[in-house]
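Suppose a classmate hands you a notebook page containing two proteins, each written out with its sequence and a corresponding row of structure tokens. How would you begin to make sense of it? This section walks through that situation. The first entry is reproduced here exactly as it would appear on such a page.
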Amino acid sequence: MKYRVTEASIGDQEKRYVNDALDNSEVSSMGSYVRDFESHYADHCGVKHALATSNGTTALHLALIALGISPGDEVIVPDLTFVATANAVVYCGATPVFVDVDPDYWAMDPEQVNKKITSKTKAIIAVHLYGHPANVQELRSICTLNNLYLIEDAAEAHGAFCLDERVGSLGDINCFSFYGNKILTTGEGGMVTTNSDDLAYLVKQYRDQGTHQDRRYWHPVIGYNYRMTNLSAAVGLAQLERIDEIVEKKEVILQKYKKYLVKAPLKFQVSQPWAKPVNWLTSVVLTSSAPISASRLMVLLSEMEIETRPFFIPMHELPPYLSKESFPVAEELSKNGINLPSAISLKDSDIKYICDATLSILNQ
């Protein structure tokens, strides 16, 4: 496919750091790049602790373990998210409780959250979907009022802000993914951020096979091998040095799409006044006046060498979480939403071609 939805942007610095790690035989999770990546990422987010993990899913799992989420507990999760958010809850033996999302910015609707809180609710996972932050201010108030934990799933929103606070610093504990299609990548990888010394200790312990941090080979709890390799961290550190550049280029791409598709029967995610989102994937939703379905549009664009992706399938429609409960906003967005090519290597002429192709199909 000539025009891809996303691709990793790997430069000379990433290669230099990886080669340096190789030259020094620092290839496992024991290495200077892991420590440097964690330290710089904590500074980037404005938090005391950042702990690198093997991927975003393990970051979520560790966050929930550290909070003591266990069988019998409920955790509120948006119905429209990647499945890992819900799966991590189940890994702990707890139950994900789904809520609908806001029709404009597509993250969980705080009003719906209030309706789902029970005596079993222990935490809320705020997913910053496609780069737009959830309404963390309202969600924090809900958590404070009901004595709940707030977890950020910021896998898709590196560099975004809620008011003047950067995502990754807003919850009791927060999670990132550095998968190959993310704004910042390590190939596979994740990060847990927090200001809590106690939570950071638990995340580190459970990440490292349950090891006691002051006594080698003493394992007081059953832990996991959820560590990031030094090679991955080398890539991540170089990527972090470029994050402002990457975010800015992503924003330029989004604005060009908005300019060229202004007359198309589709809508973009609506940026809220309290948020400074990032453009992980340029995402659009077909309106009722569109002459064809989103799935058909994706087929026709594919024939023109333009890769697209559908929106996530709502959690309540997946076999493990199948439910007859209705989540109308999540259902509508999933049915009619597509992700367009968003790699920062796209030229203006590429975006123009993609938009012209889209318009030619939708305006037939």
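The notebook's second entry, a different protein, reads as follows.
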Amino acid sequence: MNERGAAMTLRIILALLALLAGTTGQAGEYYDRYDLAARTQGFDIGLQPLGYPAAMIGATMRRDRILLQQLEKLGQPFRSFAFRRGPDIVKFLGKGRLEGGVLGDMPTITAAVQDEIDIVGIAKLTTSSVVSREQGLMEQLAGKRIGYVEGSSAHHALLQGLNSVGLSEKLVTLVAMGVDDMPDALDKGTIDAFAAWEPAPSIALARTPQNRIVFRAQSTDFFVLSRSFTKAHPEAAREVVAGFVRALEWMRRSRKNAEQAARWAMADGEALTGKPAQVTIIQAVAITRREILDIPSAPAVPAATGKEPVLASEFRFLRRLGKIPENAPWQNIESALSYNGLHEVLGNRARYRLVTFDYRD
């Protein structure tokens, strides 16, 4: 090739590289298309249709005509946005962007440390799991590829599991991916294990006896509201709390109601991902009953055990590992847990129509 031809080839290569760079830069995040600009009026909530029971709670709340009508009367129109993971919701909580959401324990702590939220109550009380294909013990995951969601409750469980056998994140290969992609990735051998919340572990275990749980850690989801919203619009915040309680009450009334909530949740998940739900209605209802509906005290936050406040051990663990700032104030967590909106709503059941149901299909 002569000098002129080489120069032409170089220009073509550079042009193609520039085109590829531009295309990559334009891809952005899935939530970039959402209208989440700050606004002074309205209630915007971040929902997670890929995790259960959160998916069924959110699907029911956003179809609650009573909730939507009450917020409209108060000048706070309701909008919902679907997110793939809790840490994405945290990015928008407060400052007039998102006023509420369902978060796992690690994202809840992250948001509370920033003094952005009030914790209403629990939306799940269960475990997150590390699921492996070939390895039967947690210590055997050293050097292996593990699928995870950065900053999630399952990430917290993974950190606990690694720490329990003297490993750290540096001694494994972390592979960031969507929780709904994890069972397939394990099947294909793209990863050797994954850390996830339901229904991903149940889906993987149902596929083959080779898949097994090698570690479980307690995991709690919380329904949270932005502090700016609860302070500026306390009555609207209580109506939202009522909608949350009403969703649980309705699903508890009958299996038929729970199954309908599962169908709504599966449709919401498919709208987000463009893929059919991997979980069955039977699995979704079983998970939701086990992890929230059959817990008599829910959605009240569990009382502190002994001298150990709720979230205290998780807070210390994450601070020790550098996942939250070393100087993060525990007082911000205490403040978030002190919100009494749930108590006020439960004390006025008739006023907030907790057993009156009107859901659109």
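A careful reader of the second entry would note: The longest strand covers residues 117-132.
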